Amino acid sequence: MSTHAEHDSCCGSASDNPDVNSPATEAVDPCCEAPARRDYFLWACLTIVTAAYVWGAFNPHDHSSVIGVFSGGVFELFNAIWWGIALGIIFVGLLSRIPRELVMGVLGRDTGVRGLFRATLAGVFLDLCSHGILAVGMKLYERGASTGQVMAFLLASPWNSFSLTLILFGLIGVGWTLLFIGLSLVIGIITGLIFEQLTRRGTLPANPWRETLGEERPVGEMWAELRGDMHFSAAGTVDLLKEGVAGSRVVIRWSMFGLILAGLIRALVPEDAFAAWFGATFAGLWLTLLATTIIEVCSEGATPIAADLMNRAQAPGNAFTFLMAGVATDYTEVMSIKDTTRSWKIALFLPLITVPQVMVIGYVLNNL
Questions:
Q1: Where are the domains of the chain?
Q2: Burial of 35 (0-12, 13-18, 19+ CB in 10 A)
């Protein structure tokens, strides 16, 4: 499959920014940088995971040493997620052929629940890393999306991508994954509604770019152009897979790093202590919130840790909190929003509005 449609990177480029002097150009996160020569961090993580996987495969019953427990954990977790990564590569390759303008056009200019629902769906269908999504969210703000839409988009997208959804299927099961996704969409829409209400009251500043919107280009017209550019061929399919691998590098990099972190936790923190500290208790929930606030890890790296909170600590609410609160309290995200909107209030209202919702849902999930 091939097309002449413009390809987009994880974090976008300056060329498709309508205002190169806008604050959004400052909102760049190293998580999604594409090294020009060699990604040493990726190769280091792959080397460690490969060595641990091989050791775990040949010594499956070695639980007496730190290395044995670490390699066994990596072996078990990798076997649970490899197929999700493989399918994710295919989906990323397909999505790389869809112009970002078409995805953004799906948002529309509606306010209220309808516009927020479209924003959350757009966030789900964009396969980007949790920090890379910031660049897209900031561009949405520049192109006139309401503050509520941008917040709903940011909350829905980080770990609801195709790749991580498939990985979560393998780690915690289809049922829990779909429940987590549904709850995150609810939080996104509620948060967006609160932001829109605060904007209408004047508590938060309105989006100044919204007043300068030009004529909206029909989504159907852009979709027709995309279909006209598509044709299938063997070479195009190979290129698509190559683009899928390249576009999934961030997912692979941070997924491997997450496997290493999860393996270290298993090796260094006994299961009874882990369950006691991060178990399905009120104190465990607050300790999880503290941990996810301090730990600066992409959603791909946080996913295996969240799975351990679910499987080893038997705390589904803590797993959900680790994923969602990690987005709401991420200092890179807060600073990016502040730089783009030029408003500390908008940036700080994100955790202020979102974290209480996450904690309530986490408490309910733990007591199901």
A1: 38-206+218-366
A2: exposed
